C-alpha cells in the first residue's frame, strides 16, 4: 500500500544524507497519505547505507504499525502527534543537524537576521520549553510532540515550518516530505549563519519587519512571484 | 540567440554548486552580450540538479524577457541595473554563500586583512545601507541595485568587484560570468578567514596599504605580472 | 589466523577515513579475539590509501607481534592495556579528529548538553590528567593507557565508551571494532556541537539528568527499545 | 630534463587540491634536484583542473627559466631563496589554506597545544615580521624569502618545517615535495585545532616540553620508532 508515498519518503530520507544533515542513524523523514489516515516513516535504526523503500513502515495516526514487521522510528509518536495537530503539513523531517542542534542545545530561538531566513521562516525559529521529568518518564516521544504543539499555540505551522526541541534537536515540516527536507536544509544554513553573525556582533540587529514580510510573501502565499508558474516546464 | 553566452552563463551557474557556494536555489549568475543590449540569466527557482542551457533566459536591459517562456531569476532587475551602471563588467554572480552572508547579516564591511584579499579586492568589501520600507515595498529588486550603485558612488567596480547587501547577501562581478564566479569564490574565502581572525584578535590590523597596492596591481592592470602572457599556451 | 577479525579491523580503519576522522596516518582501530588472547591492529605509519587486510598485525596482550613482519601501530601498548583492564570492550578506535582533539587540547571534559550526547555517552566525556615527565620518558604508550584506566576508577567503560587524553586526543571503544568507530563518529559530532554551544552561551546548561537517563537507557541495556529486535531482518 | 622530479612536483601540486588546501590558483609546490642546481615549480596561474607534468617549469637557483616557455609561479624567487638558505630541504609548498592563513593574518605564532602539533613541528610555528614598504616595492618575492630566513636565524628548518608570512600565508617544506605537502596538511590541521582551543580557553596551556620532545623525537631523528623500518614492505 501507499507505494508512491513510500518512494517519496525513502527519497526524502536519502536526501538527508546527501545534504549532510544526518550522522549515523540520527534522523528520519515521514509523509502522510492524502486522506490523512496513514503515515509512512523510516524503520528504526536502519543504516542509511542500506536504506531502501522496503524499510518504510506504514502506521496509523495512533502510531500502530499497519504494514510490515519492522519497528518504525522511535520518534514515530512525535511525528503522528504533529500530523494530528498540524492539519496543513504533509511531511516531517527530524535530524540532529549540527548548527540547528547547537541552537537547540543552547536553548535559544534562531533569530531572523537575513533574507535567507525570511525566505523560509516567518520570524525567529522557536525553541520549546524543556520537558518535565514526568513528561520524559511517561510517553516521552508523545510528550515531545506535545511541547511542540504547546509552543505553536500562537504560531502558524505554515509560516513557521520548524521548531527546536530544547536540549534535543530540530523537527521541520512542509507540504510534502521533500519540502520538509528543503526546509531542514534551509534551517541548517540559517542556524550556521546566525552563529557566525553572533561571533561578529554580540547582539545582532534582527531583519527589518518589512523585509521579512517582503521575502516570505514573495515566495509563499497568493502573491508569490518566485519560481515558475505551475504550468510552465522549466 | 546568444548561444555561446548561454553556455558560459549556464557553466557559471553550475560552477557555483561545484564550489559549494549555493544551497538549494539560492544563487544565480548572469552575463551581458558584447553589444551590452542583452543579458542572459538563470531561470527562477530551477533546481541546480536539472540545470541546462535551455534554462537560461534572455532579457533586455529593462529586464523584459526577449526569448523563451520561463521567468528569469527574481533578482533580474538587480542584475540589469548593475549592468546599466557598471559599464565595465561582463558577468554577475549572486549567492548566499555562508561567510560572505554572515558579514552581510552582521552589516559589516569585510576588512582587508591579508594578501588573499588584496589579490582580488582593492580595500574593504563594502556593505550597503539597509533599504527603507518604501524601497522594499516599491520595486524591491530594482532598489537593491540602487543601494549598491549608491554605495559605489566613490568606488570603482573594477577595483572592487563585490558588495554585501545589508541583511541579505553578496553580489559579485567581473569581466566575464566565469570571472564573477572566481571572485565569488575568493570573497567567500576571505570572509571565512576574516571571521577566523576576529576570533583570535578583537581588532585586527588591516593589511599595510603598500602591500595591498603591490598585490592588487601585480594581478590587475597594465603592470600585472601574474599568470601567463596572453599568447602563451600553458 | 583471525582472518575475520582482520577483515573487521581493516574495515573499521577504512571507515575512519570515510567519515573524515583521520588526517594523514593519525588514527588506528583494533579488535580483540573472542578468547581475549589476541589483538588485531593496524600496522604503524601505513598510508590509508593503500591499507589492506594484510597490513593488520596480530599481537598478544603484552603487545608482542604474533604474526607477520610489520610493526604494529605505535599506540599498540595503549590498546592492549585497555583490553586487559576493560574486559567488556571488543574494539578500540584512536583518532585525532578535530573537535574531540580540541577538547583534549583544552583539557576540558565534553559536557553533556543534549540528547545526541546522551544517546552515546552517559555523562560528560572525561579528560585524563597530564602524564608526568617520568611517565612520558618511561614506557610512554603504556602509561597513556594507565592514566586512562586511572581516570576510569569510578566510571564504567560500557556507559562511557570514550576518553580524552589531555593534550593528545580521544580513545574510543565499543563492543566491536565497528561500534568503536560509530562511537568515535558520535564523539566528534557532540564535541563539535558543544564547542558551538559555548559560542552562544558561556556556561551552558547541562542536559537534565532524567533526559540523560531516558536517552541512554532507551538505546542501551535490557530496556532498550531503539532499533530492530535481534531476529528481525531490516 | 628532470622528468622524475617534474612528476613528483606535479603530483604534489595535485595533492594540494585533493586535500582541500588550495582555492582557485592560490598555491604551488616545488622540488629541488639532487645536485641542488635546479628547481622544478608549477607554472604561474595555471588552473589546477588542467594541471599536467608539462606545466612544470625548470629554473636555476637564481630563478632563471632553464627549460620551457611558461612563466614559473610568481612566488619562484621566494622558493629559490629558501632552497639556497635551507640546504637540508628538498621540497616547498605554499598555500593560502584557511586556518594557517588565519594565524598569518592575525600575525600570531601557532602555539603547540597538543601531540598532533608535536609530531610535526618542534615548537610554535613562527610568524615573520611584516615586510617594510621598501622591501615590498623592491624585489617583493625575494624579500618574502629574506624575512623567512631572518626569522629562522635561530631555528632549524628540519625541526620547524613551516613559517607564516605576516599578513600573507604559510610556506611549508620537507625532505621531498610530497613530504612538504604532508607538512602543509598537518599545519592546516593544527591551526584549525589551535583556533578551536582558543574558543574554549583564552590563554591555553602549551604542551609540556617533555611531551613535545617525546612526540617529535619518536617520529624524527636517529631514535625514531614510528612507521616501518626502511627495508620492510608494508
From TrEMBL, chains A, B, C, D:
A GO cellular component annotation in the UniProt record: cytosol
Record field: catalytic activity: L-ribulose 5-phosphate = D-xylulose 5-phosphate
Query: Which cofactors does the annotated protein need, by name?
Result: Zn(2+)
- InterPro entries per UniProt: Aldolase_class_II_sugar_metab, Aldolase_II/adducin_N, Aldolase_II/adducin_N_sf
Every Class II aldolase/adducin N-terminal domain range: 7-195
A Gene Ontology BP annotation from the UniProt entry: pentose catabolic process
Q: What is its EC number?
A: 5.1.3.4
**Domain of life where this protein originates:** Bacteria
Keyword tRNA processing among record annotations? no
Keywords tagged on the record: Carbohydrate metabolism, Isomerase, Metal-binding, Zinc
Q: Which GO terms describe its molecular function?
A: aldehyde-lyase activity; L-ribulose-phosphate 4-epimerase activity; metal ion binding
Q: Which family is this sequence assigned to?
A: Belongs to the aldolase class II family. AraD/FucA subfamily.
Tell me what this protein is called.
L-ribulose-5-phosphate 4-epimerase
Where is the organism placed in the taxonomic lineage, from the top? Answer: Bacteria, Pseudomonadati, Planctomycetota, Planctomycetia, Pirellulales
Give the gene name: sgbE
